[in-house]
């Protein structure tokens, strides 16, 4: 409470209220992905941190700089084991492995805060957690921490640059796998120049934290989600060069399927990782190869044909691809219903694409909140599945409270379709009524117009393609948050 009261003494610090911790942590991730700077979450003891863990998991996987400030009981009260007591450090270590600190001393808390922010910045960015006991917050004697100079990324040695350049010149079938900071526009352009100058393929991770896309930008292949498709995609590659990416592995284990996706006979090499100067390494490799100016950027204009007739997952994404505004930010948690999203936005106006890095659903709406706070001049489009939308719908209330320019598109097919798909893929018996009922969320039907409207967000529902196009045009031209529900065929 003393921390909250002190906000009025710091006019440059913006406070954004969220109704659930998972919204706060997801918003901090979205802010970090778009700004490159950490936002702080303010969470209440161990259970409050626990409520935000899923989106902190996603933030950790995205290497997003996030600072958690977790309030705790007064130091002398903790031994009494009152109802909210818990081991916060143990909870935090799951999502904040690099920095968890308990602020025992009021005179040191300023330094603790500075070092927590430093840890969040990295590089690479990470989730840092500072635990703030009540008495350390209210006691006298606190001192400001010294301003930090921060940490610079490590320079990739010229020998490694030369070695990778020589490899690309001689390899039979090389490929670059880019992720993390290597998916920003300048880094992608350098990577595309390297591939154009060496004949290597350019592939990006399945779930990059932020990917620059659209007309005029390099277009890497996206590594397939399903392991058997990814294995086919990577087959024959003799040398795989990692650029802020990990060697590819399957999302889940499956009976009789491989988990490691690097093809047999392929050698893995590392150009740069998250702690390195990734952009500098790519630029140096461009120079070493003499590949400047050799990249061919796709210039195909967006398809102007808007869908008509039945409303399906494909027609929804066709409309999004045509109408997506320039410099938009897409937060994609459309799961199986949005399988066409990436395809239909490849020729859209230039935009940023944010993905579900850690696989923990409930990210899409909070991530959109954070992105809109970071970039108030840009339109944010949240592509949201019906099931995952119900994890953090409280984000709509924050969107309305902050008047954020966010268009939410709900793909409502009445099912946890991704779970039905996985049930089949692992070879489980999927004919049972009980199993199917656990995947069906259409009984009773979810009324997203009412849910969002009840939180102050104007909403409309579409049942055919023409109606959806009209509603999407309305949403994109409206200031503040809006929701367009697309009622598409059920899959169960």
Topology:
Blueprint: H1 2-6, H2 21-35, E1 39-44, H3 45-51, H4 53-61, E2 66-72, H5 88-93, E3 100-102, H6 109-121, E4 127-133, H7 134-138, H8 158-170, E5 174-178, H9 185-198, E6 201-204, E7 211-213, E8 221-222, H10 227-234, E9 239-243, E10 267-272, H11 278-289, H12 313-323, E11 328-333, H13 341-344, E12 351-354, H14 364-374, E13 380-385, H15 386-389, H16 395-402, E14 406-412, H17 417-425, H18 433-437, H19 448-453, E15 458-462, H20 465-476, E16 482-487
Helix pairs in contact: 2-4, 2-14, 8-11, 9-11, 12-20
Average pLDDT taken over every residue = 93
The CATH superfamily of the largest domain is known as Thiamin diphosphate (ThDP)-binding fold, Pyr/PP domains
The total count of strands amounts to 16
- Number of H- or I-type helical stretches: 20
